[in-house]
Amino acid sequence: MFFYNEIPLIILENGKKRTFRKNHNIYKINSKITHCYFILSGTVKIYIDHKNGRRSILDFVGASDWLGELSLFCDESDIKENKVQDVECLEFDIDKLQTICRENAELSFYFASYISSKLLTRSYRMSENLNYSLENRLATFILQHQQKGVYNINHTDVSEYMNVSYRHVLYVIKEFCENGILSKDKGKGYIILDMENLRQLREEK
Fold first, then answer.
1. Do residues 48 and 134 make contact, with C-beta atoms less than 8 angstroms apart?
2. N or C: which end of the chain has fewer CB within 10 A?
3. What pTM was computed for the model?
4. Using one digit for the tens of pLDDT, what is the confidence trace for 109-122?
């Protein structure tokens, strides 16, 4: 993401630290969103279910990202999420933040800038899906969502997110293992052995 502004102190003062465990939802399906979250660690999958029964993964958000912030300005009850890793975050009351935004132009600008950056990032990702190899994109994704040198995002989710086949994702992961970049760990996922090689693949984009 291209957003670098630090979170304003007035927001931090209103946050409550929370921990959510892997594979559970923060929000209840089809319920009004009453809180938003600033993620300190972990990864959350954001998706939407279509009327034809299919699902689209919109994004994965991690440290320094917001979850539910669009509800400050519009209804996003159709959007669903699921934690793919344990998540530590700061919880904020939507109504309270809305009141502060109305009274504080700096805070409103902060969220407007963040949401604009998120939109731009998703647009770039769509372009990258058409113009770069899966090796480059997967290297970037692994670097973005690894936790202390361990990568454990489900291959099915990654294939949906990147709009490629499960088999293609598995092939590239296997290639990374054969080249000494990753090592499979049955209990954890994949251990990153060569961070520099992943960075080089990312820079080739």
1. no
2. C
3. 0.82
4. 999 999 999 888 88
